[in-house]
Amino acid sequence: MSALIQKLEFYFQYPFVRYALIVGVLIALCSSLLGVTLVLKRFSLIGDGLSHVAFGAMAIASVLHLANDLFLVLPITILCAIVLLCAGQNTRICGDSAIAMLSVSTLAMGYLLMNLFASGPNLSGDVCSTLFGSTSILTLTSDEVALCAVLSLLIVILFILFYNKLFAVTFDENFAQATGLHVRRSNLLIAVVIATVIVLAMNLVGSLLVSALIVFPALSAMRLCKSFLSVTICSALLSVFCALTGILISILAGTPVGSTIVATDLGAFGIVYVIARLSGR
């Protein structure tokens, strides 16, 4: 045990380890807050679909040789999130069908663009690191950490300020609209926030594993708590704990950061599921 503590103290001397922990905790917190709403609205797969959209946008940014792809990836992802959450209910193709079409097409087009306009000799390595996460979380700069902190703080503030509206929209949109609530504006807010979270989370776990940060903590919390507020708080605590544990295990064991965090979330869900079954929940 003392050897592990000494090893952690050794790694904490390096700024990139501290940056990874800060960003990981912030992204996990933001993902869990919106995850409860998306799971209850039956939009769990939107994280997976939008992450593929972000992958396609990143491919376009690499073709254009943009110095900072965030200015292209974030607007495109937000636009697609708005289409899925706000306009999807009024179209002929909606719900999981729209998410599936968008997910597959953007993933394929992104990979096609990266093949046609390859910017480096190791194309397969670039694609694999983007899809499943890479060491980018361990190469963050102070500016990137500051940007992530500002966006995360903004997301938390928006969630707190519009908590009652999100609660109403999550459970019954028709009743919320009948009471005078602007449902489309609330869905627009959800779309913008979840797109921002997904773009931030891609550096942590990769585009294929983003939905795990959104779904697993919410599902685990629902096995333990009953009210919307208690589920949200429990989901946030579980998500932060799993992200922190996963990053530490990854640093100590040398495993991929994204996959280790998802494995930790899966293990936590299994433990919570057993506890809930034994307690009769």
UniProtKB/TrEMBL annotation:
Record key words, sorted: Membrane, Transmembrane, Transmembrane helix, Transport
Transmembrane residues, as ranges? 16-40, 70-87, 99-117, 147-168, 188-216, 228-251, 257-276
Q: Pfam families under this entry?
A: ABC-3
Q: Which domain of life is it from?
A: Bacteria
Instruction: Answer yes or no on keyword Transport.
Output: yes
**Record's bilayer topology term:** Multi-pass membrane protein
SUPFAM superfamilies on file: ABC transporter involved in vitamin B12 uptake, BtuC
- The residues forming a coiled coil are none
Q: What is its main location?
A: membrane
Q: Please give the InterPro entries that the UniProt record associates with this protein.
A: ABC_BtuC-like (IPR037294), ABC_TroCD (IPR001626)
Q: Where in the cell is it found?
A: Cell membrane; Membrane
Q: Which family does it belong to?
A: Belongs to the ABC-3 integral membrane protein family.
Name of the protein: Metal ABC transporter permease
